[in-house]
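are you around this afternoon, could really use another pair of eyes. what follows is a protein written twice so to speak, once as letters and once as structure tokens for the fold. i want to understand how the tokens follow from the sequence so walk me through it. anything you notice is useful, everything is just below.
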Amino acid sequence: MGRVRKFAGDSCYLSPCIPEDAEAWYRWLHDPQVALLAGRAAFDPPSLQALRQAVERSYGPSRHMFTILTIDGDRTIGRCDIGDVDHVNRRGWVNILIGEPEFWGKGYGTEALRLLLDFAFTLLDLNTIMLDTIAFNERAIACYKKVGFREMGRWRESRVVNGVAHDLVFMDLLASEFDGTGLRGTVVQTMRDAGCTKR
């Protein structure tokens, strides 16, 4: 049985997490090349058991996590999530990781992030989303800017790597600033077909 294509783009799709995903996450977060860009995992890599537990808690009122797979071949290449969801203030925190280096710089992260944000803004009805990344992760910052994130501040020299202190960059994006992937149009059409004229 194949993976569920919850939200799909041209090159990748987001699928609900399954237990087997924990093994890929474990491999990525114990690869220094990948984990260093993932943040804390480079210094405190999680156990396989902890990651299996994370899969079990991957979906709930305040957290929505997905596995990123390629359209061509259904290859597992990353994960992403909206966490710390506050439905009263309509805000959340996004994380994304492309764990397979051969897929870096090819647009998969950008497309997966667009799919995740469209879900967050359209179906979760969030208004603002934040993220952070280490300042030398220029590839990630370019990706975030491409989908509309703006830098909102820095925690100066707060991450020390190999004896060198680096800034932690904080960015945010408002629903009104996001150019969706098409999910919003699908939702509106579904509502119209159901006889709902609101919005």
Observations:
- The chain has one domain: 7-192.
- The mean pLDDT is 89.
- The first helix runs from residue 21 to 29.
- Strands lie at 7-8, 12-16, 59-60, 63-70, 76-86, 91-98, 128-134, 150-161, 164-174.
